[in-house]
Each structure stands twice: as C-alpha cells, then as structure tokens.
Amino acid sequence: DITFKINGQEITVPEGTTILEAARLKDIDIPTLCYLKGINEIGACRMCLVEIAGAKALQAACVYPVANGIEVLTNSPKVQKARKVNLSLILSDHNRECTTCVRSENCELQALANELDVHDIPFQGEKSGHTIDDLSTSIIRDETKCILCKRCAAVCTKVQAVGVLGAVGRGFTSQVQPVFGRSLAEVGCINCGQCIINCPVGALKEKSNIQDVWDAINDPTKTVIVETAPAVRAALGEEFGYPMGTPVTGKMAAALRRLGFDKVFDTDFGADVTIMEEGTELIGRLTNGGVLPMITSCSPGWIKYIETYYPEAIPNLSSCKSPQNMTGALLKSHYAETNKIDPKDMVVVSVMPCTAKKYEVQREELNVDGNQDVDISITTRELARMIKSSRIMFNRLPDEDFDSYYGDSTGAAVIFGATGGVMEAAVRTVADVLNKKDIQEIDYVAVRGVEGIKRASVQVTPDLTVNVLMAHGGSNLKIVMDQLKAGELKDVHFIELMACPGGCVNGGGQPIVAAKEKMDIDIRVERAKALYTEDANKTIRKSHQNPSVIRLYEEYLEEPNSHKAHHILHTTYSQ
Ligand code: HC1
Predict the structure, then answer these.
(1) Which residue's CA is the closest to the ligand 1 atom numbered 5?
(2) By CB distance 3.0 to 4.6 Å, which of 79, 82, 238, 504 could disulfide with 511?
C-alpha cells in the first residue's frame, strides 16, 4: 500500500492507484475532459493537473500513480491558473455556438467552463477543424466542435473493436478522423454510436430524423404508427430529471399519443414474436442437425460487423428479423390488411436506444412485398427532444397503456434490452415447449449481469442441456467470433451478441451521461434494473403466453416458422 497526503489529508491506497482515483476516495473532485475510466486514461486534456510538493511541473492526475510520502495539492493557485489557461486554449479552438448545440446543458466542456469560471477567452485566431461529415445514415461528426480528447477513438478501438476513428496530423493540424480523411460512411463503422455517448461535447451526434417524423404526423393521408424498443423506457426518464433506473413506460406512451401518433405500439410485442420464431428455429436446428451455434440477429451494428469481417459465420445467424423489423413487417402486412389500410399510406416510426437502427431500417432486404418494414427510426434522445419542443410536461403526464394487440407484451420481451435478456426470454419459452409444461422457476440468473462474456448450461429437459453464451460490447464479440472461427465453440448451441456494452440499455441512442458520473455508477446495471423490475411485475412473463401473440398465430401466421411467418418475419444476409 501507498500512504501519501492530498490537500493535507493522509490517505493509504493500493499501489498503482492514480492521484485522480485516490482523490475521489477522499471526495476531492479533480476536473477531467479526456478521461474515461479504464478506456481513455491518457492525460491529454491537461484539465486534471495537480501540484506535487517539491516538483517543478504540474502532473496529470489521471495518469500519475501515487507514491509514498508525496504531498498532492489539487487546488493550489498554480493549479487553478494552469487549468484556466488550458481550458481557455481548448475553448479558443472550439465552435462555441452553444445555444443551438444538441449538447447544450449536457456538455462536459460547457459545464467545466462554468465551474472553473472561464468566461472570457483571450486567445483569438484561426480554428483548426473544418469538416462536418454527415454522409453516414446514423452519425454526424463535426470537427469544429472536436476537442481532440480521443475518447471516441478509444471507445471505437478498445471497447468496440471497430477502430475506424484515430488521431491524424500533428500540432495545429491534429484531428480525430477515419483513415485518409474519409467519411464514417466509407469505412467499416458499424453505426453503433458508442462514440456519440462518450463524446464530452457536440462533436458527434446522431443524424436527426425528427423532421421526417413531424412531416409524417402532419400529413393527413398517412397513418403514423410508433413502436418503442424495450430499453427506451429504462432511460427516457433521465432526460426529464428522473433518477437513473426509473422506468417511465406509462408516461412515454402518454407522450407519444400527445405527439400525434395514430397508434402507440411496442417493439416488445415484436420481441415476443421473435422468441416464437427464434425459439422454434433453435429447436429445429437442435433436432434436425442445423448449423450451430445459432447466433441472435437483433443487434444491427453487429450484423454489419459479421457480414463485413466474419462472412463465414452468416449461416450461424438466426434468419429472424429484429423485433423492430418484425413489428414493422407485421404492421405493414397483418395490421394493414385487418384495418384496410394501404401499407403505402402507413408510416412506421421506431424509437430506439440505438443509432444503428437508422441503418437497419434502410436495409433493402427488410421489407414485406416491397414495403419497407420500418420507415423512420429515431433515438431515445430524439424522442426526448420532440417531447420538449412540443411543450409536453412529461413529468405531469398520467401513466397510459400502449394501444392493444400490438402494444401487448410480456416480461420476457422487456428484458431484451439488457445483455442476457434475449437468451433468458428464449430459454423460458424453449423449456416450456420442450417439457410441455408451464415451468415456474424462470429467473435464469446465470445469464444476467455485465460480465463481458458469459457462458451457462441450462438443463431444459431431463435429456437436453443447452449450452449458451452471451457477449456484449464489440471487443468481447470479436473474441467470441474468433473462438467460433477457430472451432472452439462446438459445444455451444446458442449465442446472444449485443454490440453495445451492457446491451441496448447502454445503446448509442440513449441519454448521455457525463464521464464523471460514470466513475461512480454503472449505467448498464442501473438501467437494466428498470427492465428486470418491469419483468418481475408483469403477470405474463413468457413470450408464448402473450395472448395477442397467440391470437396472431391463430388468425394470421398459422404457426412459428410457417411459410407465411418466413415470408414476413425472416431475412437473409449479404456478404
Ligand atoms: Fe434492442 Fe431489440 S433489444 S436490439 O437491444 O432485439 O435497439 O431495447 O429494440 O429490434 O426488442 C435496441 C432494445 C431493441 C430489437 C428488441
């Protein structure tokens, strides 16, 4: 252990602890901008400078390991002055159109300028970044706001294993860009948006489709239907001041109705249908010698990754469309037919915790009889903006239900939004189907939690043990894909892959949480709690027991994996 003094207080910490970490243990706040716990600890922004008694130069607390006997000052006049100068320099090269920036009031740079009382920028002159890259369907990169903290590049490379962003140039010409100055649309970006939710400023944001939604709602010839992903309800409340982990399902449904959608439906319904289709597909593969392990197919960023980098694994992918698209496809077919609406006059809008869903909805193969399954996908953040701009007092809304039938869902569907949730939902149904009984113990805790790669064996019948694997976050998925390629997963039957760390609750379209807050809380865990609580409170917690899903098969789809179900709900992949 190491014993040293910080602002006069003695503290003992394990060897290797940085000054920044030690300070937090004593509730001493040191400002940071580039720091991302465990991911980007590079001392680049010089905001965390501290003084060490006897040393000439100030040191970056985020990378400086404590040593026995040192005396650290985190708030001396020298430190205060240096931080202000450094912050002014960063601000001098930053596009400060704060009032109209999407990150206004949720910007770590703006917050720091206020906290450090920096209001006049003495440095004037040319600015460095000029490019605004808006060619991607999901992500806009605005160099005029980039502060070169490299958080996006670190997340893209280390967490997601995608690595399409990196530092180029030196000195004044430094930029963080895709290679050769290309657009994100021209490199292997998987549209996950993890760069966005880890950007401290507005240099990265989703491509907004809000106006497209308004245009549809305001078009009297269109029936506009909205569906909301499981994870949206777990985080939308944060935009309106609710503590993290508060589910706001009822208020969300009420808000959507007031925004003017004709029907307010739930992607959870499609998630229940997905379990029917995917569960049946799995049972088929297990009993007919099909390709195993079967891999879930609902995370569109990761589908793109497999198509690009592991095309040999395409036969392992479930042929099921994602719940988002199953819902849309059923609305454009079954719902349109039963309500005598021409699907061409219908606009399906999805609200997703995900920026890759904007890419997914545009995929050509995801249509029914030429009608795109989902027309527009917006993020949780965009929905919050629509609610705010409409002056809806979200916190005062009553709790309302989704519209019936396509708004009916089970506990199994809601947990889709957390890593391990799709697996748990599938196992609940597969075990019941194979045992031909209503099993009561359905909390499969072995598949829950935020460990990067989890394996479990589930005894589904006395004669059948299903070996499952769950992974989330691109770097973990890559490990799994390499193991698959090397033939090391021959004993595994079913794999759930989610591109974002923690699954959709931490998707690239979710409300943005400052790095400082993420030092103290694990947002993946907190938001998942909202989903598991909602699951536990549902009377029906298994997809195959959803009465509206049962009815859908009876009146339309016949049975899971039927010819009709395949036509509407399944897809193919491209290499
Ligand atoms: Fe997800 Fe899914 S869970 S992919 O994580 O299978 O985005 O929430 O909607 O489609 O249901 C996301 C979440 C979401 C799909 C479902």
Answers:
(1) 504
(2) 238
- For residue 298 and ligand 1, the question of a CB distance below 6 A is answered with yes
Question: What is the DSSP code string of 501-537?
Answer: TTSGGG-TTSPP--HHHHTT--HHHHHHHHHHHHHHH
| Rounded distance between C-alpha atoms, residue 38 and residue 25, angstroms | 17
Asked if residue 417 has its Cβ within 6 Å of ligand 1, the reply is yes
Q: Which residues, in sequence order, are CB contacts of 139 under 8 Å at separation 6+?
A: 184, 189, 191, 193, 195, 196, 204, 205, 206, 207, 355
**What pTM does this model have?**
0.97
Ligand 1 pocket, 507 CB below 6 A? Answer: yes
Q: Cis (ω within 30 of 0) for the bond into 14? A: no
* CB of 324 closer than 6 angstroms to any ligand 1 atom: yes
**Domains located in the chain, CATH noted:** 2-92 (3.10.20.740), 122-206 (3.30.70.20), 211-569 (3.40.50.1780)
Mean pLDDT, the chain, rounded, equals 96
ipTM: 0.94
Q: In this predicted model, which residue has the larger pLDDT, 131 or 252?
A: 252
Q: Residue 505 Cα, ligand 1 centroid: separation in angstroms?
A: 9
Tens-place pLDDT, residues 277-310: 999 999 999 999 999 999 999 999 999 999 999 9
